[in-house]
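Example record

One chain of 892 residues, shown exactly as stored in the release files.
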Amino acid sequence: MHVRILTLLIAILIATFALTGSRADEAPASIEQFNARLDRARATLDEVQKALELPELSDAALRSLRARIEPLPHELEETIEKLTPRLAAIDARLKELAPAAAKPQEPPKEAPKAPEKPAESKPQGKPAVKNGVAKPPPARGPPVAAPEATPNGPESSDAGARVSADAELEEQRRLYDAVDATLKRARAMLLETRQVAVTIVARQRGLFAKNLFLRTNGLFSPSLWRAALDGAPAAISDSASFLSDRTANVVDRVNSGRRAQFFAVIFLIAASVALALFMARRVARRSEDESAPTPLRKAAAAGWTALVISAAPVAAVGALSLAFDAYDLIDAALEPIWRRFVEGVARIAFAYAIARAVLAPAHPNWRLIDPGDRLAKRLTQLVTLAAVTLSVARFLEQLEESVQGGLSLVIVTRGLGVMIVAALIAVALFSLPSRVEIEEGAAVATPEGRDWMSAARFFGALIVLVLVGACAAGYVTFANFVILQIGWTAAVLAILYVVVTLSRGGIEAALAPTSILGRKMISGLGVRRDQLAPLAVLLSGVVTLLCFLAAALVALAPLGYESGDFLGNVRSAFVSFKIGDVTISPSSALVAMLLFAAALAATQGLRRWLDRRFLPLTRLDLGLRNSISATLGYAGFIFAAALALSYVGLGFEKLAIVAGALSVGIGFGLQSIVNNFVSGLILLWERAIRVGDWVVVGDEQGYVKRINVRSTEIETFDRATMIVPNSNLVAGVVKNWLRGDKVGRIKIAISPHAGVDPERMRDILLAAARAQEGVLRIPAPQVMFLGMEANAFKFELWCYVEDVEQSARVRSDLHFDLYQRLNEAEISIGLAAAAAQTIVHMPQFTELAAAAAAGALAVEANRARGKSEDEQTERSEASKEEAATPDDAQAK
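Predicted structure tokens for this chain:
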């Protein structure tokens, strides 16, 4: 097997070298051949320029001219690429021959017969000198005069060599002039071709804008309907005659040719379509046994369903087109109508297939978007009916244009198609469940829990208002363009979802450690198993980005070359004003805001992808991942702002005045804001404090939740959020428990009674520390004997934990264990040492105490005697008052 593969590779290499050698051996084209190519390009260019002089050219004519002019730049660039090295080689040869031809101009230094050389040997044509370098003169000048040769001796050979060199020099100069002229001609034609291409694009843009914003009477105008009804009978009659004539022409061509073969081909196509439809129903059937399919399987089933359902009708009309072309049944008059028919069939087939693939009316478990069973069936029907309406309307428009129907009739036909589609959108909006039904579970929200029904209702109502308003204002063509663009964009988005999901799932499955490719990368390339997942996510991200870019280009494909003029025409509809050299209009400001929003959304999407998919698979810690995410957010905001400002004309060089004003403002009132912003950047990149760290700021402590532009959010242990300015964290003192690592130390102080054995106490403390699973063995636990007092001894147990965030739990477990061990050892915790007492020794303390006691008794006796005298005095005064009371009463 390996020998066969090696032989095949050798054969491929030999074939490649043979082709390369054959190409290298090809004879280079002559100047006449190059000039013939340029003559043909010149003729084509003149014909296109002459056609562009006509004032009225249709879009088809402009596209034809564009197709004729497109190959010319490539041919001219190829000619320039081939002639440039040839001219450089000729110029190098001229520089080599010029000194040999100029040598006779100088007298020989050691020639014995100097007078014998003629003085007229100096060439008549003086070489041009440019920047000090002699250039070979053009061949139009007279040739260099050859020196006269002597008939005999060595001088004759020198003279012959000089004559040969002069002849070669003259030939090289002539060739240089020819190649240079051809090269200049090719470059001039290339520039002219590009200018003509730009002119064609400008004409196409102008025609597109003119047709798109063609304003007629409003669709609800009576005059428009009156004119359409007046021209309708004639248009119907002409259409019937046209179709009957074309049908008769087709029948005549079939009867005059190979009739049996044609009908055999048609029968074969019909049988193939019937068989394909039958097989499509069986192949596109999803399994109901799988209750919860993965997103990858859903996307694969949706893509396969859309492909199988749409392939049969599209292949049928394609085969019919090939058959009609083979038998020459479609003439120039019928070709536009047949093209509209083919477009209509393809539109209906794709719309129905995509609706069935995405909504899966009969398979709830396989839906990409789950609006509920009833709404899934209703939306599938409405989407298909809208596609049928658009196809019929465009077919009738083409038929009316073919029979030269009036403009009013075409506008009415187009407007009716638009209004029917708007009515179908309104019916779909009314079919959406209400908020109450959503809360009750009538519809399934997105995986992120978002209510997409409200968003769909808002945008649907906006689309209906735009369509009805445009038709009422007379911009029916614009309303029709909006409908076609919305349908095309919806189809592109559906295909994008399927492709992105399939590519993401396929890459992740291919790079799984158990897959064949994953095992080969691990064994052959030395990739670690944990590196496969980040590699898969990164690769899927790149593929997703490419898919989004391709989808954007495909979605804008209907605009073609006219997209730039579309924006320009919208911009010219608003009033603009100038501020210095900058022109600002409401449209430019609106587009700038849209650019800002789009760029910011793109960067936020990239940031979200990094946060959710890529960074969690790396070995980066949470703080560094947050720093990367925050920095990307700031950079995205700056990029979006710069893009929006550059669109309105405010480049970086024009922001100098604004920067000066900001510097003045910073100097006066924005110091704290700028200080906090710069401090936030310092925190992000110095990473002294990271998201998830346990910090202590003043009297508060908690976990860092987020580092913003101005402040940092810290969630305390009480579940409160503390907002700290970034400048305080940079300039202040902050204690970070998790800065270097998560290892932390626990200190437990214990004071047993004074009679305890210190050695026994140390053994108990160490045994309790070693019994805990959260305590590290290295560094080993330690017991410190810190002091001895009258009532208790002081010990401290020092031990280390692997995660400082678990220190509180380990401390609590140690306390429980120590309490149990001390009780079993009958060791009590001693009282706190009493305050120191002062003892005063006094001589003859007993005598002093007796004297004090006698004095106290004497004081008590005196107090009792005084109290008795006071009582006697009071009683005598009371008896005197009682004796005086009867005398006073008699006197009264």
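Notes: Residues 154-212 form the longest helix (59 residues).
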